[in-house]
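the two lines:
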Amino acid sequence: MVSCRRFFVAVISLSCLLASFTPSAQALPAFARKYGLRCSACHEAWPMLNYFGQKFKDNGYQLMNDRDSPIWQNPSYWPMTLRITPYFHRESTDKLPDVVDAPGTTNPSFVRGLTYSGFDHSGLDILTGGTLEKNISFLLVPSADETGAFHMESANVRFDNRFHSSWFNFKLGKFELDNLVSEKRILTLSANGGAYQLYHFIPAGDANIFGQIGDNQLGIEWMGHSVNDRTRISAAIMSTTDGSPDVPYGKNAYSGFFAASQAFDVGKLGTDRIGAYAMVGQAPTVFLTSGGVPIPSTGTGNKSFSREGFVGQFYFNKLNFQVVTQHGTDSAWFGAGFGNPIDNPGFPNNGPGVTLPAGTRNPSWNGAFIETHWVENPQLVFIQRSEWVHMSQQSIPGTPSNLGNTDNYVFGFRYMPLMNNRAGLAWHNEYAWIRQRGTAPDGSDTTSSSVMSGLDFDF
Amino acid sequence: MRTEALHRNAVILAALVAASVTACAQVTEDQQKQWLGTPAASSHIGHLSGNAKAAAGDYRRYCVVCHGELGDGNGESAQWLDPKPRDFTLAVFKCRSTPTGTLPTDQDLYETIARGLDRSNMPPWNTFTTQQRADLVAWIKHYSPRWQTEKPGTPIEIPPEPEVTPGRVKAGRDVFARVQCWKCHGAEGRGNGPSASTLQDDLGRPILPYNFAEGGRFKCGSTDADLYRIFMTGLDGTPMPSFADNIKPEEAWDLVMYLRSLQPFPSKEKAIAKSLGLTPVSTTSTGP
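prediction for all of em together
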């Protein structure tokens, strides 16, 4: 039973990954239009922020001069940007379960690969952001997946420089966690390379969806920074909902996210930064039921989880490295499949008399990625990322120690023929390869790959 | 006397600008490239030495959109900006520690980059490393022939700031009236003097005087010493002249104290002005 569930989770995870190519990246020509700056002023390579862009964001989308207030804007100015990516892609997975050949053909198979290719388009991001008044700003991002189904990716209001200090900035709503290496500004877009595995890792069989630091969360954040942004520190408290509205899970479940970093001048090379982060939280395992179906917002029996690691951004002229590490731990209850019967009613509910299977332990893992960029110039960037997430302790004794281990390699380049203060266009090319250990139906490894070439644009 | 000084300054500035414009009209892109390799296209700020060529990438990434490929202030955004971006080919700069009409020091340009310029689109670029800023200073200098033939002026001396006293604040008001600051800045410092609506910069573009009552940061800094420096060196390229010939150093500090009292923030100067019952200067005052 546990094995089936683990397999089911693995397949669902992979499917979600394949279907999740909706970049939701935040790069706003609306800001460039407002201030008359090129995108290269804030983006090392669009949409990845450089140091100046990070400072602009940390100041609540303000350059910190008197032109920040909306009163300075031309009345026709509208702080809105649209982003979408038409592209060609080829997706390949070597093992899928229960694949049967078309009727009338021979050689039925229950485990086989699948490859397809075609022209496609990404989801649509509608990015609006700016200042409501000096030191009061907002970000609103209605985002559609490729079918046109909308959700609210971001919706928050910021109060910055309270008490005339850059150390007192507050944000309320749905927002990206203070990840120095931002997945919302990732330079890779393909189905198998468009997300950081580390930011979404869930062990095989584990039901804790709430520790995904790459997902925008609902909560409140305090953030402080030095005037030149060399020192940054933040703390956020969020509802443990993985960003879902209506508090659908626990009655009283919260998580916290903490980040701090320090930048250093390294002469002609620029500015390097190192930092650390931690997410600690609790999520419910016990739900009231009606007719056997778990009732939303009734979750109790909170169990804990944590993610913590280090971050580094290192610049060597045109070459730069982004490094993120993570150690993650879930409660044994999550490892045994408890935690989210709302989205998956088949998952167990920790009701009266339920006990953990004997010997169940807290699953834990370690991971890291190194993303390398060669920024030939602001219009041409080469990208490579290597990512590894390996289990250090499986929840269920006897489980293969490497089950769920994930290795991901991505290569690509983006060429931006347009570089002005009105719009962005990138010719994006990418190859991504991913392997998940032991997640195939026959217990072997699953490997998938993506090839894509498209035009990523916003205006 | 003040009028004569103003005229003299205006004539000097106009001559400088005309000479610069004439010189720059003859400057080619090839010449600019050639100047990149000269000692004048380097900078020295304390122990830092800036190399112009090292700043090429940063200039292209951050600056070119306003200041333009040729440094002439005609970047693609320039048409939308007011005030217009600095034209580096003229080598005329507002924020200097040097007397009016002279080139600024490397330190002046270095500080301006990090500080930005309020009431313009120039943000504070304080995310650059010190070396990046020094390199950019050197880069800026390669655009104008003035840096090939002239040395920066000698920074003016600023005496130690005296203690704020009622007598000094009141004396500052007298200086404000005597040198007719009110003509542009208004009797209450609100930037609404009788000449305010007629002001133009050296290139003939309309320009507004500073509004003390609004309380924004001064164009070239925010400290008392910065304020002292602004009116003793003038803001070259604008109608704000240097008053170095009209105001003695001790009077300059008096004026600083009075100007502080016009700002909206709580301050010792403001409290003193209130206790003295200082009223706005008479706008019938005659100049020095």
